[in-house]
Structure formats: structure tokens, C-alpha cells
Amino acid sequence: MSEQLDILIFGAHADDAEIGMAGTIAKHTALGYRVGICDLTHAEMSSNGTVETRMEEADQAAKVLGLTARTNLGLPDRGLYVTPDYIERITAEIRKFKPRIVFAPYWQDRHPDHIACSALIQESVFNAKLRKYLPETEPVNVEQMYFYFINDVYEADFIVNVTDYYETKTAALSAYRSQFITGQGTVATPLNQGYVERVEARDRLMGQKRMLQYAEGFVSKLPLLVDRFD
Known about the structure:
With 230 residues, the protein is α/β, with parallel strands linked by helices. It is 38% helix and 17% strand. InterPro entries: Bacillithiol_biosynth_BshB1, GlcNAc_PI_deacetylase-related, LmbE-like_dom_sf.
């Protein structure tokens, strides 16, 4: 029996969620929220690292962030398409953890897998609530779905102040040495040519909009509900 999560974050590859929202994850786990990450692939097509090292790095990052769960569906890297089989597997993951909130990559990004992941999660969140879809499992109505940025940044609907948790974000990203650090046998990629520094600069710019040191931005397809203005 899987533990119910408050928040479930999907990424195409291990490190996607950390790039986009590790500060927000750390902030919520510190407050006692049950947070999980589901990586869709083992990133087996990555230019650097191996499946085994990526799994070890993901486990290390999970410990840094205090995750309740981290899973991997083993879908093909660079083979993510919106298919009934993939939607079923992701829907089953949502029903297993019963999250109140789901995060997915923003639907525009330079990496096609991130775009495909976004589309798959949107389809699966919708199907998860249908009682006649996969009737052998209990339907789950996700209360909120939000989108985080990975490579490309667009206008955010809201931001989260992660200033007090930015060291944790940096530590989580540092777990992915095979991706962000150059060494013997590595090849040059956008990820090991100052990428982490650019992520930090992005988060500084996002925070500057509200006079914060660091913030992470998110998008919602639904209007944000406000009970009152304080």
C-alpha cells in the first residue's frame, strides 16, 4: 500500500523536477508535506552518465529534498509520445499515490521529452478522475495542477519564495554530477557548460520581481482562486 502524497511531481528525466522546483519541494517537505517525484524515463539517451549512475544520483537528490517517494516508470528516453499505454501507466501512478496537487513541466521547452511529458501528465490527470477508466482502480480527482519551467522560462502566474531553501536546491542539483560537472570521459553538453549557474540566475531574476533573493515560477491553466485580498 503506497503512502498518500500531498504533492506529486512528474518529470521526463531525473533532474527535471530539481531544476524547475527543488526549492519549492524542500520548502514543503520541511513543513511536513508528503512530496514525491515520478521520473518517466531512465534518461538512457543522455550523453553523459549511465542509467545506474542516474538512478544513484536521483536517490541522493531525493534524500537531500526529503521526499516521501521517488519512482521511475521506465518509459523510453526520446520515445515519449501520447499513447494509451503511457497514459494508463501514468494514471495508475496518480491513483496509487492519490496526490492533491500535481506538477508537470511547462508545455513549451527546447527538449521534446519535456513537452511530451507535459502532454502525458495533462491527459493522465484528466483520466485519473474517470470512474469507468481502468475501473479496477479507484478514481482520483487531483485538486490542482501546476506547471514548472525547466530550460525555457515564460511568464509565471505565481512565484514561490525559496530564498531560505536555496542551499538545499543547490545540494540537490549537485547530486547530478554526471550531468552538471565535466570530468574525464565526459562530453560537452548544455548541462555542463554553466547550466546550474544559469538556473540560479533565472531564480534570482524571478525573485527580483517581488524583491526576493530567490523564487521559482509556476503556471496554472485554471484561474487562481483568491478568497480575499489582505
